[in-house]
Amino acid sequence: MKTRHQKLWIIAIVTFSFFMTTCRKDISVPDPNLEKLFGTWNWVQSSGGIGGQTTTPATASYSQTVEFDKDGIYKICKNGKQQEKYKFTLTEDTSIHSTVTAYLINYKHTGLFHSNKSITTQSIMFGGQDSLFLSDEAYDGYNNIYTRK
Questions:
Q1: Among 126, 109, 136, 110, which residue's Cα sits nearest to residue 38?
Q2: What pTM does this model have?
Q3: In this structure, what are the phi and psi dihedrals at residue 48, rounded to the nearest 5 degrees?
Q4: What is the C-alpha separation between 128 and 79, in angstroms, rounded?
Q5: Dist CA 105 CA 146 (whole Å)
Q6: Per-domain residue ranges for the chain?
Q7: Predicted pLDDT at 128
Q8: What class, spelled out in words, does domain 26-148 have in CATH?
Q9: Distance CA 97, CA 108 (A)
């Protein structure tokens, strides 16, 4: 009887280990340069919208960070408290902001995360290692500037 329980434990441990190593996968990155996206970024400024307004942490009276994890999770924190959480993928495709191919972030709004569906795609640009520019793929969208935390 003891050996049967031992076999069950071994099978359970092997099965658990298998799922732990296969369930979490890093997202596909179409260009090694996009690796610098991963990490936490401090919001500096957003501009755009119908009125073309510019908003900063000083004018909005709050700070905000965004985080991109290698496992494809995007988080927004406002004044240090998590506000939103989405899955995302990275692709290379046509952007409305350019005539050349661009790198895009595609956010997946599923039932597991919040349901704010106002932004589904943003184009990505970098200013060196420490500046990130995300532009909504919408004609009245926003251009957002972040610096690495």
A1: 126
A2: 0.76
A3: 135, -145
A4: 26
A5: 15
A6: 26-148
A7: 87
A8: mainly beta
A9: 21
